[in-house]
Amino acid sequence: MKLQIFTVDAFTDQPFSGNPAAVVPLLEPLEEQTLQNLASELNLSETAYVSPIGGDTESWVTSSQFTLRWFTPTNEVPLCGHATLATAHTLFNCLGNRNNRLEFKTMSGVLVARKESSNIVLDFPENPPEPLTAEQTTDLDVLVKGVVNNLLVDTVLLSHTTKKLLVKLHSSCTRKDLESLKPDTASLLSLHNGSLVKGIIVTLSGGLQGEMSEDSQLYHCISRYFAPWNGIPEDPVTGSAHTVLGPFWSKELGMTRLRCRQCSPRGGDLIVSVRGDGRVDLAGKATTVIQGHISI
User: Fold this and answer.
1) pLDDT averaged over every residue in the chain
2) Are residues 23 and 135 in the same domain?
3) Are 111 and 75 contained in the same domain?
4) Is 46 a catalytic residue?
5) CATH number of the domain that residue 70 is part of
6) 251 and 147: one domain?
7) N or C: which terminal CB in the chain sees fewer CB atoms within 10 Å?
8) Are residues 16 and 8 in contact, defined by beta-carbon separation less than 8 angstroms?
9) Among residues 32, 46, 103, 252, which one is catalytic?
10) Residue span of the structural domain in which 33 resides
11) Is residue 29 classed exposed, middle or buried when 0-12, 13-18 and 19+ CB atoms within 10 A define those classes?
């Protein structure tokens, strides 16, 4: 069997930056193990499988409703922003979908992607982080230190819905400090079994306090994301992490529209709008890098 496959760099308009995801359009279901084997073979942080609901080959052009699943090299995950953006980009720009609004039925409910100017906007559930209990603080303290080393920490919170630990560095820390972090994957896996935490967001203010301008080099927040428990030592740009970062920084800064930078070595940009209805809009760009077929 031959399958179409697209590799898309998400949250960037430049190839070889942002976060790469594979997108595999399917008209017929595949066995679970085949889905996982293919994701492992591709070895990207996410492989997205998209299918039109009740459709045929013409549905790639006409349908506005799809099922969507996301697999890392080791397991299926309930939510992935950059692979959703990559999927919407593939439908709009590679498969010729004529709609301006797409709905994806997923493990996290129905997610919407829509065209807006030069961006694709994702309508996602917000996942605000919460304070740790005293017991959780004690249990996770060694894990936090394993990520940030000797940097001072201001706040540690947990998003229970996504199992993401948010670590806000002290204001004395700089972007250079954040970019210099090199946590050891094997060490992190030995410090925690993934039962409570599946990924760690390390964040810092980006220096932008007011409304954003097109030529500003500042951001409302900057971050990095490490998820070895999902087979991802570091994710280049993470949409789902910004469903946690958005409500946190919105509250910190008293703003609802945030310009965000994930400053991994590849790096990428997002605009996060906290809507106040339990949802966030994640806006970004994407670019197709590879188109082809894979035989299974």
Assistant:
1) 95
2) no
3) yes
4) yes
5) 3.10.310.10
6) yes
7) N
8) no
9) 46
10) 2-125+284-295
11) exposed
